Structures
1.
Amino acid sequence: MKGLSLTLILFFLLGTTGTKAQEIIAHRGYWKTEGSTQNSIASLKKANEINVYGSEVDIWLSSDGVPVVNHDADVTLDGKKLIVEETPYATLRKVKLSNGEPLPTVEEYLDTFKDCKNIKLIIEFKTHTSKDNEDELARKVINMVNDRGLQNRVEYISFGINFVQQVKRLAPEAPVYYLNGDLTPQILKKMGLTGLDYSRNVIKKNPQWVAEAHDLGLKVNVWTVNTPEDIDRMIELKVDYITTDEPLLVREKLSK
């Protein structure tokens, strides 16, 4: 009887520790809620409040070398479009987000993130018009992360090969994912990356990449997964992370 009980206990422990739960990443923070908007300080805080795995954020370098938070390559100020890379920070600071916040700097974002203990920060380096700008942005942001002791809580993603290579060089222990969807898991493994972070359409066309990545010891993240049908499909494929604008819906689906 004692032998049987020990066997059952071991089976339970192996069963519960051998399967890792799928995780949720809030796309541009948790912004579909009152007082929030995409890539805002509020969206970061609210992602922390709902206790998901991570909050994603998009970053650029201003013309005078200040890392700032924004998704698009341009912003609108007084009805005029301005290219972020070609605009000094003092001008970008005048841009107001839809919730009234000024356009944030990466420093402000990281300072807020220090107190967000429930989540990781997923930093997307947006591809720039020059390699020099990309190298400067990668160097400055990784230094900011290191100076604040946040190395173990930050992950990096990019569509740009140069960016993922720079992160691997500057922060070799950091998780780094490639976004563009054009490289197989085998190539990403040879590059030394943590995994792939591809759109739902790429994964639906190449579902075998999930198992292939896992066999290679790589992680799989998928974006931006918002509809019930797509959420169900990604759960079925056993991807590791689901990046979504609907984190509460994904949580509800996962709980079932």
2.
Amino acid sequence: MKRRSPWLTLFALIGGAVGSYYMAQAYQKARAGCPPFRKRTLTSREQLLDAFGWVWRHPEALRSLHENREITSALARKMALAIAGANGNRYAGSTRMLAALSQGLARDESESLLRGELAYATASEAPAIVYARRYAEQQGEPEADIVQQLAAQYGARTAQDIVACVRLITLASLVGNTFDALVSRALGQPSATTTLAEELAILLMFGFGMGPLVPVLAWRAARPLDAPPTL
């Protein structure tokens, strides 16, 4: 057996030590700069099952939403920013997700939407953005008059599609915040509303239990839509 060079072993040890040092420094810096965690997250596996279960039971709603040209990508981004703000993501650019949602929007516009303001919303966008914000703030139970405003502004079909869009965005926002809670916990700022076991269980269930079902859900949603969905 060929004997390993002691120089290679020495360089490997030095390299490992240097790498460990810089990783520790990066961790300490991230830990020092990590603010207290105040975002809204999923708090139980049952909550995740309920949210995903609705999507699974209503593939026709996804098809209708996909085919509805009145719900533009710009409107969807604005609703997503309103929901993100209600769920605790206050500043545009603070995460990659918010940076992606803010594409095409000025920073002032994005931060205004995160604060729940309508200064940059058009008259046709405002009812949808208000509904999205209140849906998040009221944890899925917005006021009846806000729901009625949707139908009055957009008609029954588009109002139902906005409801479906808001449900999907809210699920994505809460799953993302739950992942952030796990990262924040590792940096010494745990969530006050969840435990490590709950965060791990929710993320594992979403990643390994629901992720593989997405292609099946897409196939079901691609089936012909005979009539507007009734949710």
